[in-house]
Specification:
α11 runs parallel beside α15 and α11 runs antiparallel to α16. The protein is built from 30 helices and 25 strands. The longest helix has 30 residues. The two termini are 46 Å apart. The protein is α/β, with parallel strands linked by helices. A hairpin with a 2-residue loop joins β23 and β24.
Length: 920
Amino acid sequence: MAAGFGTQANALLRKNLTFQLRLLCSDVNRVEKRNVKANIRLVAFPIVLCLLILALQIVFDKLLNNNDDNKCGCICVRKNGDECEEERCGIEHSNLNQAVFCRIPNPPEWPPLLQIPAPEYRAVRNDFMTFTDLPNESCKINGSCPAIFLLTGNNRSFGEMLGENMLPKTFSINPSNLIGSLASNVAVRVQNRSRVQVNFLILLFFRILPIYSVQSRCTSNSTISARVQLSSINITQGIRCLQGLNLWRTSSSEINDEIYKGYMKGNSEEKIHEIIAAYDFLNSDLNKFNMSIWYNSTWNSPSRLVRVPRSVNLVSNAYLRALLGPSAQILFEFVKEMPKTETQQMVDLSSIIGTLFYTWVVLQLFPVVLTALVYEKQQKLRIMMKMHGLGDGPYWMISYAYFFAISAAYMLCFVIFGSVIGLRFFTLNSYSIQFVFYFIYINLQISLAFLLAVLFSNVKTAAVVGYICIFGTGLLGFFLFQVFVQDQSFPRGWIIVMELYPGFSLYRGLYEFGQYSFRGHNMGIDGMRWADLADSGNGMREILIIMLIEWLLVLAIAYYIDKIVLSGSAKGPMFLKSVDKCLIYRPAGCSVYNSNFAHLFTVQREKVEQLLLEPSTSYAVIVDNLRKIYPGRDGNPEKLAVKGLSLAFPSGECFGMLGPNGAGKTSFIGMMIGITKPTSGAAFFQGFDIRTEMDTIYTSIGVCPQEDLLWENLTGREHLLFYGRLKNLEGSALKQAVEESLKSVNLFHGGVADQKAGKYSGGMKRRLSVAISLIGDPKVVYMDEPSTGLDPASRNNLWTVVKRAKQGRAIILTTHSMEEAEALCDRLGIFVDGSLQCIGNPKELRARYGGSYVFTMTTSADHEAEVESMIKHLSPSATKIYQISGTQKFELPKHEVWIADVFQAVEDAKRSSRFCLGFG
């Protein structure tokens, strides 16, 4: 009875588990671990990366995260010896670096500041900026350089009037109300072009930076001391007067050019040319107000919030004064930050650099799956399993589930280990989101491996490409894709296009996990939650959709290619290779169709036609006018490989096929085992048609290919257990069949059965292949040169096995040995140029067509004439049929030579030591 779906799935699952677990139980219950190093490397890779991140995190915590400058400043208010019992923390106890981390429950009001360049950086006339209205460069010596405003517009007189109205002409500061006074026009000097954060730090600015009031002109002593109280801090600050200078330019392009030149020369500290702001009043007049503003945010990005509002307020007040008089004013009193809790700038490496490392970890599974699939393809194990009854459904279900179980266990260990050692990348983000993300991706990865396995025929090539994909994807994701994701100006549509590549989808998902865990750690909140997927800036939802669709699509395409395209376009059994050998026995007269045996072919055809009409028959295989034509390629004509063959093979018979290379033997067997489709004609196995019912036929045939298609890491016993289960054997019957098979091919004793097949000799592998073809009592067995590579003793033993196996089944074998054909075959067919030339039992063919011997001699080229002379002396009618590089072959008619004379000539040649020879 044929094995069902469940039995086939069980057989493949057991084989896969045995292959993966690498466990071998011998007769003495000794357990040997196989490929332990490969498994250790696979598991150790994510563990080592996680431990490396953890070690770096510990170092960062000691050197940076726990540094006093990365938290709000504190002072000790009560000590007990050297230990502090009580401390107070706050912005008033903080330096410039610490202040940004302090708790600000009630942010103070502070004036909108107009930031100006330090004296040494202000715009002056020099060798590259030659405007004559600019101040002389000598003003930098005493720090008296004015602050420059550039103006332009369609109406110069109106624009210059607005420029004059922008700056107050008097220096009036109310010391008791500094904040209100500063609201009119104040600039803060930022020294050394440093990148200073301005939010929450106005108190510190008042402490360490001079404050200027920008006026249209200043007297010699224009400094006022004032006292200000901000929050709980009292500050005494000197307010200085700074002259503001409005300079007119003819066009906006002239202003743009001046700013650009100053920026380009800014690479040299002594050439810096900075202005406060520039205004283009365009077509403004008393009826309409239209303008553009240039402002500089190059050196201090946060200050743009200060520069822009105050710059707009200055020119708006100037326009208002032009309309309503000098007393008109839009009061811009203060700006105020949002309240904030105490924060600490903690560097979480698992979130920052984890994206790259974790991408490598997850992608490491891809070459593992890919190489496993390519290995079965390269070793032709998939087709071997199929020919022994494994259907496509069980293969796909078990193989996919097997790889999924490995991937799921790998990812589960990875997440658990990362969580146990405290990596916030895992602990802060929702585990349910992580589960869904990893579940979809590993399914997509497995499906992709099944699809791409079609492109490779070599395991090493597949492994190299796989690992290049691992590291290439990680590096491209980190240095290219992540930059595009962070660039808000980059089109989001192109981001989605890039995410169609599964590696970038993986990187984007891990990047989002990293960003949310980083923010959650610094702000003391949770990482990514399901509600966060609705955030427009969160790309997790889109990649989950992309990966899910790709998973289903890639899986369907991979299955279609495997099931339809490959099966339908296969050109022949790759393992049935033709070997360039000469027939030791060559019947004379068989090179063309022999008329003496014409009636035999007619009988065979008539017999086939009669059998096809019978409702039931004892014949195992019936071949009806089977033809195979290979289409022409590369300019070559089409090849007629099998020419209308009609044969019937009864059970209990061994049929031998002899013929030179290219005779059609391989093509015939290929059609019979379903590897190639016949061009025309048909063949039936117990009533089942090979053209449409091969899946049913596979359950009842055995195949011994010319190459030994074995798993190197499985033992001989495990091979037979697997193929026995495919033939529906189980329990004690399976165990008995395996032991009998091992004994029959002399692989049972000495622990040979429990050794890995990769350690077998060529002859042992051959015997195991024969045992596989016979296990499970198949009704028809195809053997392609089964005794190749065996020593004489093993060959005779194998012949005994084949002879016993003929009982109740048909055996069809190919061979180049007439001795083997005579020992095994009940009937023998000789094929030439795709057609059957002779058929009969071996003794009959030998008696009728065995009219000559083939004599082979090898000498140096100098003695070829002597060899030919010797052969002519033995047999005047001898014909030379082959000669190359000193090797010659002759056909000697049997009636002209005696074996004794031939051997005597051989002995004479040996004594002369001139050449060596062979005889057949």
